[in-house]
């Protein structure tokens, strides 16, 4: 990728970056070349949503005069054919330098920014980072601004993630802050975030033929009384409170896996695809 002019490329990085597709055999196709106004410097990879792919750029976007004049970054959606839609351009107050988010069981995406947000500190004068939620259509909500606690004991500079656990909560880490004095800006934290989403189960793998072995991960699975693949009952074994082993039952079709426990029914976060 070569820059056309300094007005639409970040020369410090020799171009604003691309989104590409590559086959297992090594055939590469460039799906999109970024310009600064549409985002620049896609630091992390893509995440696959239930429809398209989603990603972020660390710089660029509609607010190119902000965040030191390089832009505060974007969150985008891109189809397999390469059609890109910028869902949100950060402006610093809602964060800057975003990390690629993950899709949760409510269909929305949850992620962090390294800088920006409501709180500042001598260690993060441009903002200590945020946790955000964004809908597939692009409505962004700032859920938390780091360094909300005295001394930034809750952390600064949101790292990758957060990821959703089968108990419904999110877990993530920060690059700095915390209670330790062993590092110049703090050694970081590991945090949990509850937004009211309920527990679920996750299958490993997410596809297979009839008779294929499947692991089901979850929380409080002890005492489970049934496992179904899209309403077709399966034989199963409760190995521990967090693991059930089973096989794809005869007659099963593509759909959600459900586990009935003494505390309620848990549904898989994605559909299990029954293959021929």
Shape: globular
Q: Strand-residue fraction?
A: 35-45%
Low-confidence stretches: 1-9
CA distance, first residue to last residue: 42 Å
Structural class: mainly beta
Rounded Rg = 21 Å
SSE inventory with pairings:
Elements: E1 18-22, E2 28-33, E3 47-48, E4 53-57, E5 74-78, E6 84-89, E7 96-98, E8 102-103, E9 109-115, E10 130-134, E11 140-145, E12 156-158, E13 163-164, E14 170-176, E15 190-193, E16 202-204, E17 207-208, E18 213-217, E19 226-229, E20 232-234, E21 236-240, E22 243-247, E23 257-261, E24 264-267, E25 273-274
Parallel strand pairs: 17-25
Antiparallel strand pairs: 1-2, 3-4, 4-5, 5-6, 7-9, 8-9, 9-10, 10-11, 12-14, 13-14, 14-15, 16-18, 18-22, 19-20, 19-23, 21-22, 23-24
Describe this structure in words.
The chain is mostly beta strands. Helices cover 0% and strands 38% of the residues. The chain is built from no helices and 25 strands. Strand 10 and strand 11 (140-145) form a beta hairpin. It starts with 17 loop residues before the first strand and ends with a strand.
Question: Main traits of this protein?
Answer:
276 residues, mainly beta, five-stranded antiparallel beta sheet, four-stranded antiparallel beta sheet, globular
Brief overview:
With 276 residues, the chain is an all-beta fold.
